[in-house]
Amino acid sequence: MRLRQIEIFHAVYSNGSISAAARALNVSQPSVSKVLRHAESQLGFSLFNLVRGRLVPTDEAHALFREVDEIFHRIGSLKQTTLNLRGAGAGHLRIGVVPSLGLEVVPLTIAEFRTRYPEVTFDVQTLHHDDMLRSLYERECDLALGYDPPAHPRLTIRQLARAEVVLMAPATAFDRRLQVVSVAQLAGLDMIDVAASGPLGEITSAALSRAEVAFKPVASVGTYYIAAALVRFGCGVAMVDEFTAHAVGREGVRVFSLDPALEFGVHAAWLEDRPLSILGEKFLGLMETVLQRQRRGSRDA
């Protein structure tokens, strides 16, 4: 299919009729009909059937639209890129971020970044650890932010900070004089387990195994902020990243350092064959500053 045929097909499918498609494209109805008939002739199958006066897409049209819609999204991205290149100081960053960094760290970084570069726009999506590489490979984002991504020959990976897993617990769970809780002290406690949590889950599971701690799993959740919310409502304790603990608030909750300390890295990753833009480099530089500030705030709280 030629690009014009793709455009006409997309418009008819999306708008539901030839007349509506013609209005959307600001062209005549006969020209839309002509291009559509020519496309069907080239393809060798019908794209629409006329049923009770309405155009109804065929099964082939439904299958084709999924591919065509993706092309249109890419064209939209191309248009955005040309606008960015045209505008001085403008740009667009597509970022994938694990949910816990999306609670506060990344929004703070974006807010501060836009005070310096107000013309820059962002596309931000939350990703679980296992989706980070796929999102980069499939070009859904240009920059992924998460924890300890695996080394890969196609990826460039940069560490932005070191951080710690902490314990969130109801305020009455431990002696008020305690500031640090040993992993062994978690034995027998009601625990919120964060399932499928990537490298942080592996770190906490290994620590509990080494200490031979048997806990009572009261809930299994998919994200750390849900675990933190359950702690806040008194459902048990949870081992979470320090950024989640800092972001969700402390009312009725205490946050403890763990002994031994459970450290992990905060990393940025991007495809090696798509080097980071100047704006991306500046964004990461600012994010390193925000991470340092957040870590100091967590220790001082």
Question: Which descriptors would you attach to this protein?
Answer:
11 helices, eight-stranded mixed beta sheet, alpha/beta, single chain, two-stranded antiparallel ribbon, 12 strands, Arc Repressor Mutant, subunit A, D-Maltodextrin-Binding Protein, domain 2, 301 residues
In short:
With 301 residues, the chain is an alpha/beta fold.
Mean model confidence by pLDDT: 88
The portion of residues assigned to helices is 40-55%
Instruction: Compute the separation of the termini in Å.
Output: 61 Å
Largest sheet: 8 strands, mixed
CATH domain class name of the largest domain: Alpha Beta
Query: Which fold does the CATH topology of the largest domain refer to?
Result: D-Maltodextrin-Binding Protein, domain 2
What is the count of helical runs? 11
Fraction of residues in β-strands: 25-35%
Shape: elongated
Number of domains: 3
> What CATH architecture of the largest domain do you see?
3-Layer(aba) Sandwich
User: From N to C, what is the helix and strand string?
Assistant: HHHEEHEHHEHEEEEHEHEHEEH
Oligomer: single chain
Q: Specify Rg, calculated over alpha carbons.
A: 26 Å
Low confidence ranges: none
- Give the number of DSSP strands: 12
Structural class: alpha/beta
Annotated CATH homologous superfamily of the largest domain:
Periplasmic binding protein-like II
